[in-house]
Amino acid sequence: MTKASWRRWRQLWPRWVTWVTMFWAAVYAGFGLACALSGTSLLSLGGHQASSALGWAVAAGGALAALVCGVAAWCGLRPMLRALLWVLCGLAGVAAFGLLMDMLTLMFGQAVDSWASAANHALAAAGMFLLAATARSDHRPSKVAVGQAHSASSRSVQLAACVGTVAFLPYAMMKLVWASGGTFAGVSGREMRVISERNGASGIWLTLESWGLDATALLAALGVFLLWGLVRPWGQIFPRWTLFLRGRRVPRWLPLTPALIGAATLAPYGVLGVGYLTLAAAGVVTIPRGDFHSSGDALLVSWIGLAAFAAYGIALVIAARSYWLRTTTPVHGAAE
User: Hey, what's the signal peptide range on this chain (predicted)?
Assistant: First the structure.
């Protein structure tokens, strides 16, 4: 695509994004209606299917989004319509919760708990971005200050990134102990491999474990790489890349897309999980022991995992917001 055609395409942005969002809304409403009429559940809790009533809510939300986009396309984006779009964007974000877990389960477990639920998460995530884009469709993209996109974030944001990084260390060490055949929380590496096979782990997962590596520990490392890519210029993270990146910019959607998906999943999952573990530690609720030999072992492992998810998820929210502001600040606007 030439610069001239790209410029013309960007000038048509307010027009085409509204119609694309309206098409998505119609598809989403039809998907919800089909699930409701067929009795297909869109909510899967640990493999247990809940009521199919959520399909009616999805159908209603999609129909309302289509109506709002249609009115906006014909009458312009009024303040009331913009407010409705942001409300629907928030609801779509809630409906997309679990998309990251679906992707990981599909990647390493070869299947998901519910394909209908996974499809709902994916459609809702797409709708979240489209609804946000439509709500901002009358805002022309502003120029980015020279050097601003490649500048480092503030010290407070980098401190949050440090906390998110350090929080993953106990989690990664625990996983690597099991992958190397060691014992942690009363469970040996051999037992953990049997559990993985019983739960339908993929060949990739089992192969990595046979090499003494854990797939989730590797994903944690990628997550830390993404986190620091949001707060530090890429050339400073990898000096050898400086020559390659000179004169080029990483497209802002490339790090922001996984960052937003990860933040929307890990932050609430970790924070709510830590709250549940606090109640379990206080004896208010009982945590099931699952594949562990005692509830105490299960509680220990859960603390390590959920505390890491909570700290990293919050750090990812802060870093993504910082990156968003640094790459959209007008030339004469204030920095982060």
Answer: none
